[in-house]
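User: We ran a pulldown and think these components assemble together. Before we commit to crystallization trials, I'd like a predicted model of the whole complex to look at. Sequences follow.
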Amino acid sequence: MLKIKNFLKKNKISLSRFISLCLYQREHGVYQNKTIGKHFITAPEVSQLFGECISIFLLILQKKYKISNFCELGPGNGTLMKDMIRTLKKFIDGPFSINLYEKSEYLRKLQIKNLKKLESEKIEIIFLSKLKLKKEPYLFICNEFFDALPINQFEKKNNIWFEKKVIFHKNFKIVNDLTNKKFSDKFSNGDILEESPLTKLYMKLICKHIKKYGGGILIFDYGPFKKGHVDTLQALHNSQKCDILDYPFESDITYHVNFEEIMKISKDYKLINYGPITQRKFLFFHGINERLSKLTEKIKSSKTIHDLENQFERLTSPYGMGSLIKCLFISNYKIESRAFDFHE
Ligand code: SAH
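Assistant: Here's a predicted model for the assembly, 344 residues in total across the polymer chains.
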């Protein structure tokens, strides 16, 4: 840590580099020593119902287009894939591969521990440290992956554009640095633009692959339908919101994903966008009610039934995850799911 502080006494670094250090630096990065659930809880960690509904959606495509590769980006503890494998293996006859792309070595070890045992003659599980893909179609899935990628921020002040940078002077501080980057005149003073270089990189790579070999990507992430020009960076420390500089290297850092930007990239590859729709809409259309009834039918303990109903509520609540998290599907296939038919 001293090394990082000393470096930042003499050098300003971009926000994305700072966030990357806070989250993924080998020794001190948050994702290098904490399981998902310490600072924030995600949908798969809330309930198995999430992965089961996703599997239903993907199985329709898998059957129709005979796809035998699934790939998750940023699998966290491996919980979503564990729930998905349980459902997928019941409905897929032939062999299939599960690919997990993870940056954190700590989380990859945890994923190996939780998932390796599910490997069988039928299911090949591949842990990827580089996004190297076969020349075949894949169904990609990611939950809260893009909101965990580092971003840069630019602000217009008195008609001049500045980039936010980080230095260390007694404490970590954010400073404005003049930038040569060019932006459209349509922006007003006070506007803040957020850019995620890694989102662009991954989306281009994946869209290119989908265009060439088929398949699709199903994305769940925090963000509005239309992103405003404001600061959405946020940190979570033990589930409490805080500033990213309050507990650096101890808090999770996220921001609101720009779905329009993601869709724009996919359109450059002439792919089709479905959504975004809210998480609750996706789950209702893919059988969460029916699945809950089926599960509760078999259970006698009223405590377990109560727990399941609470999980259902958390995933679908219009005041929480249910509407804050959006779902977008990108593919070159024409799909017939009514879930994506109209906007809310
Ligand atoms: N999908 C999981 C975890 C979400 S947290 C869940 O819903 O519970 C974000 C995940 O993305 C973590 O596993 C993190 O280590 C991983 N991640 C972040 N940046 C990454 C990158 N550049 N490449 C691969 N994985 C990354």
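The longest strand covers residues 160-169. That may be worth checking against your pulldown data before setting up trials.

User: Thanks, that helps.
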